[in-house]
Specification:
The chain has about 180 residues and is mainly beta. The protein has a single domain, classed as Umud Fragment, subunit A. About 10% of the residues lie in helices and about 30% in strands. Strands 1, 2, 3, 4, 9, 10, 11 and 12 form an 8-stranded antiparallel beta sheet that branches. A 4-stranded antiparallel beta sheet has the order 7-6-5-8, with no helix packed on it.
């Protein structure tokens, strides 16, 4: 009975995840563990600033073809490959459906306004730090970026993520003990 209840809770309510890479540093460290609400987005839309766990498009997890379409090198990927991978990524939502977006010095510029992001680790001169050609996020898609802008494989490379590929919203960290807290 207890095992069944635990499986139901993880499938529909809250699921624990371990941070696999440094892409969300300094917000989340490698090995840190978070709790993810699997039901929030059944009742409300994801919002800019939310940290979410999602399935990336096929190719993103293996370093293969990441973007679903050819695009200029000065533009973020406008469209993902059509199939989702089985792997999970954790990133921050920086733009939503219908938003116009380009990247300036590693910061998203959404609908003409540069994001105020004092929590990120800055991007330092990499090609993905300056993507000046604007894209429009498709309906029911979200643009994800890691907080460690110079070391994150994210929507800049693989494109906006469909809403139904989002597993849930990270809302708390429970390990290590000195990092316990709510986002």
């Amino acid at each position: 009975m207890a095992i069944g209840l635990a499986l139901v809770i993880q499938a529909f309510v809250v699921k624990p995840f371990q941070i696999p890479s440094g892409s969300m540093e300094p917000t989340l460290d490698i090995g840190q563990r978070v709790l993810v609400s699997r039901f929030n987005y059944r009742f409300q839309d994801p919002e800019i600033g939310n940290i979410v766990v999602f399935h990336p498009p096929i190719g993103a997890e293996s370093g293969g073809q990441e973007c679903g379409v050819d695009h200029p090198p000065a533009q973020p990927c406008p469209e993902p490959t059509p199939e989702m991978a089985d792997e999970n990524f954790i990133k921050r939502i920086v733009a939503g459906p219908g938003d116009r977006l380009y990247i300036q010095n590693g910061h998203p510029v959404v609908n003409g306004e540069i994001a105020d992001e004092p929590f990120i680790r800055p991007c330092r001169g990499l090609a993905e730090c300056e993507l000046k050609d604007e894209i429009t996020i498709p309906p029911d898609h979200y643009f994800m970026m890691g907080d460690n802008r110079g070391a994150s494989d994210d929507s800049r490379a693989f494109g906006p993520v469909p809403r139904d590929w989002i597993v849930g919203q990270a809302f708390a960290t429970y390990w290590p003990p000195d990092r316990i807290g709510i986002f």
